[in-house]
What we know:
Layout: H1 2-18, H2 27-47, H3 51-55
Amino acid sequence: xxxxxxxxxxxxxxxxxxxxxxxxxxxxxxxxxxxxxxxxxxxxxxxxxxxxxxxxxxxxxxxxxxxxxxxxxxx
Length: 75
């Protein structure tokens, strides 16, 4: 079994040594596309930056602290 695995690996390595695949576009273009996707995601997040305050009710700013308020917290 190990000879079969070694034969397969040597075939893969030989194919990789001959030359890899050609990329469909230049490598720098992948970076530009990734940067554009990042910026569009940031723009989407920025567009909703004040949504929580717009939908909040009048008394929502008075939050009771959670720490120490549950039963058994005084140990």
